[in-house]
Design a protein that fits this description.
- The structure holds three protein chains of three kinds.
- By secondary structure, chain A is of the alpha+beta class.
- Chain A has three domains: 293 residues, no CATH class; 117 residues, no CATH class; 64 residues, Arc Repressor Mutant, subunit A (Orthogonal Bundle).
- Chain A is built from 16 helices and 18 strands.
- The two termini of chain A are 51 Å apart.
- Chain B contains three helices and three strands, in the order H-H-E-H-E-E.
- A two-stranded antiparallel sheet of chain B has the order 2-3.
- By secondary structure, chain C is an alpha/beta fold.
- Chain C has a domain of 281 residues: Amidase signature (AS) enzymes.
- In chain C, 66% of the residues are buried.
- The chains are: A alpha+beta, B alpha+beta, C alpha/beta.
- Chains in contact: A-B, A-C, B-C.
- At the B-C interface, helix 1, helix 2 and strand 3 of B face helix 10, helix 11, helix 12, helix 13 and helix 14 of C.
């Protein structure tokens, strides 16, 4: 993106995370996903005349946990306001939200972009996180030219998490969104399912000439249901805005939808001055008071969060920052990793385990488009394989073969090793015999080696391995070969 | 602080109320007569008072997170002007 | 048959001793409804069959030896309380024949108490009005003078009780909607402290001001009815979490030394002189009962009016957004598109006054005006509440007028809505502060009744009822029945 020279990108994210409560924020209807239309929309959710909201304690608890997790201010008193607008999937003609006194304000998360030497940490500050109710869904399939309204989702509790406009690239925005995603899942307050809309990310994007302090006109990108699309949508939008300005145009404040099929954003609507939500305190709800002793209890109950876990993986297991970051990027991955380690018992080898979870396993999961919870190779099964690597039964190469067989459902590591006869040869006399055989068959090569052509060492290794069908223990093979060949004169 | 016809039209749109052109002048007059009461609010004594949203000095009660509602769709949809396949119907919404 | 035109305690005794059955009592009042309501138009919906069934059930409970204050007592609901199985209209075309799939908590409680619902009474549409002329079901007449309004918004309940079509009825009061019609119709009404009676299933006008209450023939009857209606409701977050005292027991609390505050600012040029004189006489009566008159300051009535006519419409504009023609109620014919559906359904479904208040409220909340209107009105509300707090340091109850005049003529204010709002000048401050208030009949100006307002500090309903009850032990204004509605009247 050479055209980015001279431009600074400014991105802020608004994340809507559905809270994993059983019932809705203001009614006793179920929040379960995927029910028949309107069977989980009770009179309160439909906004029928005379009904009143009563706040779900768990929604408050979960929102407070999020605040505590990001070291934000959890308000001892917060209030609900009404955001008024007409839309068919908004039953009451207003959304109950929090404007003036949100439950959470401030706080920050640390993101890492780049790998290895180039890894950079950055703190992203949050503006606020507030409780609100979700709207229903409009179904645009044709019902005799009409739109159908399903209000099952109406009243599902959300926290809207608003960042400061502190991200400067799509990569930073994605890193931030992933970190928030990890935190809400670690806390168990959101299932994080982006396909089902449990975790929705809207991006406010603007550009300005480098050195300019005033913000450029921003657009809001909606309808992004994966991190990959988020990155692409923002990158597309950055390029669009820069090209527009460089061609003498101006950016209009508008809402844009990301179309993953065309990989572009398109205008949904312009933000008119007519957007006037007439917020005012909801007179049906009283101030929400959080007792400070209870808040302290909640704080003590916080689970180990991704950053703390990653730090521990580095100090306790000696893992690299990168591996520690990958393993803690989602609660399910960390859980899998820790379960694998546990299952290995006294032979537990964290680095070996980390290599496999972030390497072979991650690659297969990615290829199959599966989450780690759905891995056909369970943590126990992987531990069984890694034990055989740790005790030298399998070389890494053979272990990969066994892993692939396990993935294909051929059974556990030991039974695959047995049926395929993959057990590594560690008997020194057997290895010596094989080495001697190869040296005897190649006297000229032995002579060349001894006269200084030390690169031939690899040739002998290869020949012996071939004879051993790959099963010779590589370390033992090296030792025997070195002893039998003696010094290579030129190598000194 | 009075309302003119174009503000009235804007407010009517926000309220989703259709106005007949012929009724606008009288309505502007009625509304301004009501808004005239608001002159009282310029009272300087109010400047430093905290807004009072509610007469009740109580905090929000909380409900346990329990699913207490069962499927009442058929009953709840009975009062709806237009439904199909368990959905409320409205004229096509263009997004 | 004068056995039936009696206070609730007489009816109770009649039922408990088997002098008459609940069915007979119910039938008697149903007959009065069918005989007299044609002229009054106090009812929107009558439910004779359900009433007789409920009466039979009450008779069975009575026969089984059950004794309860309201068991078998007929009553009517203002048509703002949701009743499963009986339409709830709020006197609006918007709701049409909508039947709520649930009962208001108040209805649930009265049902459980064994009270017998005769029907649902007329009102100003969505409780917006002071004359009951803003009804899609037509105006209600004042039983004392058919040329006069009954007051509003609970005009149907007030007229029905005054004409003794029912012994007692529910009402709601947002800015005076129980007290003013009670005064205009010469009956007793109580608006409890905000939060005392559950708002669940009571269709909202202005949520931070609305409060359900009672219109009845006497303070004692109010006490009996309120006892059954009051109490904490987990379905209403704004319901007061306070124990309910025994109002009937409290009726006889001694009044000696009770300081009755009389606001100087309320007895000025704006108050009709006959109304003022009747109230002064009643206050003198209280003094003769041992109470002590204290002249107090209660300023800012105009400020309260200004605050109310922004706060109430603002809340209403939002509360009434749900009436959009999508999930229930009225939908315009053949909408062209979504906006047309919204705009036509709402402008065809809502009456003029409701539309006016929605527009004012929307304006008061809109960008650029919020601080000057709504924000400022909330500050004024704080001032009004503080004024009452100061007043209650010098007195125990406040006594004054309910309205500046007696009932005005039908049609008198219809062309000028703002002057109608002045009718509420003495009642509105009470709602803003969330206090309990009562209207007690204290005489007449010509053919039209005069009511005195009693105001207390929060949750002192028992004391207000006691003052009114003991006053009613020494006067008979509350027992007056309009000539045309006395028994045997043609």
């Amino acid at each position: 993106m050479s055209s980015m020279n001279g431009w600074e990108v400014v991105i802020g994210l608004e994340i809507h995370a559905q809270l994993a409560t059983k019932s809705k924020i203001f009614s006793g209807a179920s929040t379960a996903f995927g029910a028949e239309p309107n069977v989980q929309a009770c009179a309160v959710d439909l906004g029928l005349p005379g009904v009143l909201p009563v706040l779900n304690a768990e929604a408050v608890h979960m929102a407070a946990l999020f605040g505590l997790a990001i070291s934000a201010h959890v308000a001892p008193v917060s209030t609900f306001d009404r955001k008024n607008y007409f839309y068919p999937d908004l039953p009451k003609g207003y959304q109950i939200s929090q404007l003036a006194q949100p439950i959470v304000s401030g706080g920050s998360v640390t993101i890492t972009t780049g790998e290895g030497e180039k890894a950079v940490n950055k703190t992203i500050n949050l503006t606020r996180a507030h409780l609100e109710e979700d709207a229903g869904k409009s179904l645009h399939e044709d019902f005799a030219g009409m739109t159908g309204i399903d209000l099952n989702r109406a009243g599902t509790p959300l926290i809207e998490i608003v960042s400061e406009p502190e991200m400067r690239s799509a990569a930073e925005a994605v890193a931030y969104a992933r970190k928030v995603h990890a935190i809400v899942q670690y806390l168990g307050i959101c299932d994080g399912n982006m396909q089902e809309g449990s975790f929705r990310v809207d991006a406010n994007v603007s550009v300005r000439p480098k050195g300019e302090t005033k913000l450029g006109t921003r657009t809001e990108i909606k309808n992004v249901n994966s991190f990959r699309f988020l990155e692409r949508a923002i990158d597309y939008e950055i390029t669009r805005q820069i090209e527009l300005i460089e061609d003498g145009g101006t950016v209009q404040q508008q809402t844009r939808l990301y179309d993953p099929d065309k990989d572009e954003t398109r205008m949904m609507r312009t933000k008119e001055a007519a957007d006037d939500y007439r917020y005012f305190p909801d007179p049906d709800l009283l101030p929400v008071v959080i007792d400070q002793a209870l808040l302290a209890e909640w704080k003590a109950s916080l689970p180990e969060l991704p950053d703390a876990k990653a730090a521990r993986y580095q100090s306790e297991y000696g893992l690299s920052p990168y591996d520690a970051g990958v393993l803690t990027s989602a609660r399910a991955i960390a859980t899998y990793f820790e379960q694998t380690l546990n299952a290995m018992g006294s032979a537990a080898d964290a680095k070996l385990c980390a290599n496999w979870v972030t390497g072979a396993l991650a690659a297969q999961l990615n290829k199959a488009n599966l989450g780690i919870e759905q891995s056909p190779v369970t943590s126990d099964a992987l531990a069984g394989l890694l034990l055989r690597v740790a005790d030298n039964t399998l070389s890494n190469k053979l272990a990969k073969e066994v892993f692939d067989a396990m993935w294909a459902g051929e059974g556990d590591a030991d039974s695959i090793i047995d049926t395929r006869g993959l057990k590594q040869i560690t008997d020194s006399s057997a290895i010596e015999a094989m080495v001697d055989g190869i040296l005897a068959a190649n006297p000229d090569k032995v002579a060349e080696y001894r006269s200084g052509k030390d690169k031939l060492f690899g040739f002998f290794v290869g020949q012996v391995m071939k004879a051993a069908q790959g099963k010779a223990n590589p370390q033992q093979l090296n030792e025997v070969l070195k002893a039998r060949l003696g010094p290579s004169e030129g190598s000194s | 602080m009075s309302l003119n016809p174009s503000q009235l039209k804007h407010v009517a749109h926000l309220s989703r109320i259709a106005l007949e052109e012929s009724k606008i002048p009288a309505l502007v007059q009625d509304l301004n007569a009501i808004l005239a009461f608001a002159e009282q609010l310029k009272d300087g004594r109010l400047d430093d008072l905290a807004p009072m949203a509610h007469p009740l000095d109580q905090q929000q009660p909380l409900r346990a997170d329990v699913v207490s509602e069962t499927n009442q769709r058929d009953i709840l949809l009975k009062g709806a002007p237009a439904t199909e396949q368990g959905l409320f119907l409205v004229p096509k919404v263009i997004e | 048959m004068s056995d039936y035109l009696q206070s609730l305690s007489h009816l109770r005794a009649g039922l408990d001793s088997g002098i008459f059955s609940a069915r007979e009592l119910t039938q008697y009042y149903l007959d009065r409804v069918s005989r007299f309501d044609g002229a009054l138009n106090a009812f929107i919906t009558k439910t004779p069959e359900r009433a007789l069934a409920a009466a039979d059930e009450a008779d069975q409970r009575l026969a089984a030896g059950e004794r309860a204050p309201l068991l078998g007592i007929p009553y009517a609901h203002k048509d703002i309380f949701c009743t499963a199985g009986v339409r709830t209209t709020c006197a609006s075309k918007m709701l049409g024949d909508w039947v709520a799939p649930y009962d208001a908590t108040v209805h649930q409680k009265l049902n459980a108490a064994g009270a017998v619902l005769l029907g649902k009474t007329n009102m100003d549409e969505f409780a917006m009005g002071s004359s009951n002329e803003n009804s899609a079901f037509g105006a209600v007449k004042n039983p004392w003078d058919h040329a006069a309004v009954p007051g509003g918004s609970s005009g149907g309940s007030a007229a029905a009780v005054a004409a003794r079509l029912v012994p007692v009825a529910t009402g709601t009061d947002t800015g005076g909607s129980i007290r003013q019609p009670a005064a205009y119709c010469g009956i007793t009404g109580i608006k409890p402290t905000y939060g005392r009676v559950s708002r669940f299933g009571m269709i909202a006008y202005a949520s931070s001001l609305d409060q359900g209450g009672v219109l009845a023939g006497s303070a004692e009857d109010c006490a009996l009815m309120l006892q059954a209606m009051a109490g904490h409701d987990p379905r209403d977050s704004t319901s007061a979490n306070q124990p309910v005292p025994d109002y009937v027991t409290e009726l006889d609390q001694p009044l000696a030394g009770l300081r009755v505050g009389v606001p100087r600012q309320w007895f000025t040029a704006g108050l009709d002189s006959v109304v003022a004189a009747r109230i002064e006489t009643a206050i003198a009566e209280l003094e003769s009962m041992g109470a002590q008159r204290v002249d107090i300051d209660l300023p800012d009535a105009e400020l309260a009016l200004a605050a109310y006519y922004l706060i109430a419409p603002a809340e209403a504009s939002s509360n009434l957004s749900r009436f959009d023609g999508v999930r229930f109620g009225y939908r315009c014919a053949e909408p062209r598109d979504l906006n047309d559906l919204y705009e036509r359904s709402r402008s065809e479904g809502f009456g003029e006054e409701v539309q006016r208040r929605i527009l004012i409220g929307t304006y008061a909340l809109s960008a650029g005006y919020y601080d000057a209107f709504y924000g400022r009105a909330q500050k004024a509300r704080r001032q009004i509440a503080a004024n009452f707090e100061a007043a209650f340091r010098d007195c125990d109850v406040i006594a004054g007028p309910v309205a500046p005049t007696v009932a005005f003529d039908l049609g008198a204010h219809m062309s000028d809505p703002a002057t109608m709002y002045l009718e509420d000048i003495y009642t509105i401050p009470v709602n803003l502060a969330g206090l309990p208030g009562m209207s007690v009949p204290v005489g007449f100006s010509g053919s039209r009744p005069v009511g005195m307002q009693l105001i207390g500090s929060p949750f002192t309903e028992g004391r207000l009822l006691a003052v009114a009850h003991q006053y009613q032990q020494r006067t008979d204004w509350h027992q007056q029945i309009p000539a045309a509605y006395r028994e045997g009247a043609a």
